[in-house]
Amino acid sequence: MSYLRNTWYVAAMHDELPPGRLLARIYLDEPVVLFRNAAGEPQALADRCPHRFAPLSAGKLCNGGDTVQCGYHGLQFDGKGACTHNPQGDGGIPKAAVVKAYAVRERHGLIWLWAGEAKEADESLIPDYSAVTSAHVDGTIRGYMPTACSAELFVDNILDLTHVDFLHPTTLGSGALSRAKAVVTEPSERSVKIVWVSSGDVAPYAFDINLREQGRPTDQWTEVTWTAPSTMLIRVGATLLGEPREAGVDTLNLHLATPESAGRTHYWYWSTRNFGLTPEANAQATPMVVNVFKLEDKPMLEAQQQRMGTADFWSLKPVLLPGDAGAVRARRKLKALIDAEASAATPTDGAAA
Ligand code: FES
Ligand SMILES: [Fe+2]
Description:
This protein has about 350 residues and is α+β, with helices and mostly antiparallel strands. It folds into 2 domains: about 10-125, Rieske [2Fe-2S] iron-sulphur domain (Rieske Iron-sulfur Protein, 3-layer Sandwich); about 130-340, Alpha-Beta Complex (Naphthalene 1,2-dioxygenase Alpha Subunit, Chain A, domain 1). It has helices spanning about 130-135, 150-160, 165, 175-180, 205-210, 280-310, 325-345, 350; strands at about 10-15, 25, 30-35, 40-45, 60, 65-70, 75-80, 85, 100, 105, 110-115, 140-145, 185-190, 190-200, 215-225, 230-240, 250-260, 265-275. The strands form 4 sheets. Strands 12-18-17-16-15-14-13 form a 7-stranded antiparallel beta sheet. Strands 2-3-4-9 form a 4-stranded antiparallel beta sheet, with no helix packed on it. A 4-stranded antiparallel beta sheet has the order 5-6-7-8, with no helix packed on it. Helix 2 packs antiparallel against helix 7 (about 325-345). The radius of gyration is 23 Å and the shape is globular. InterPro entries: Cholesterol_7-desaturase, Rieske_2Fe-2S, Rieske_2Fe-2S_sf, VanA_C_cat. Keywords: 2Fe-2S, Dioxygenase, Iron, Iron-sulfur, Metal-binding, Oxidoreductase. One of its GO terms (molecular function) is 2 iron, 2 sulfur cluster binding. This is Aromatic ring-hydroxylating dioxygenase subunit alpha. It holds the Pfam family Rieske.
């Protein structure tokens, strides 16, 4: 499986990595252990001791988190992957006792991991999702939902939100999206935006119940911005027909996918809204939102992947519908970025000579 390497992937939400925890996850087929050093900064190492290849995540943190001690024979490594302590023999540090260290950064409540060489890490490429992650806590519903499908299927799912009319008809669907014309743009070299607007339909249930009057025609908007390789920002809202957006209800949502492998994906949702900002309203809304993802999206995505098996998506000759315009553009863009990396890494004849 080829992945885009010189880019940031979400590794965890900030509170999945409390001080003192060794968090073992596989990203892009590579076992990684995450932890916080004594200063609280996230660190990421290959989760394989260079001695007899024990998982470092089965060891323990020492020195306030500054080192991780292998649970097998006790070598200790710091967050840069250097061996700092050898309890065996005379205590000399073997030259080869080095672990791969990844560049990691914590930004706005998310921990990001750079999949390329750590020295190439470019912080300017971390998307700014602070508008979501700083939203009111009582208007926030978020969680982690690992799923047995490719990250590309997740991206397809979000970039083609016409599926809400069929997969989530009693909560998020109103029929409006399937009939609306999608407008696709490319805000940058690494992003695709798809927008649906519609007028005259009653808003989906989850929005209708929160408008000033129920069952009335509305103006609705749905905007999805995908940023390579697999993070998506969604704005969805509705207002009574002819009224300004500010008079209606609006939501800002993150859907963050990181490949574990070709057929498994780490997935986080971070949903925020500008209405019902109380603990009671949040407690009431949470089951509906979580069930949409866990009981409707996840089973469908896993069933799709099962039907596809390990076949290449395009080799199955998928039928294309108007709503696919954004997803197809994103797939092509990601492939172009991966191909560009591959050709940059391949020496030309001249360079090889
Ligand atoms: S396997 Fe880690 S110290 Fe031996
Ligand atoms: Fe969905």
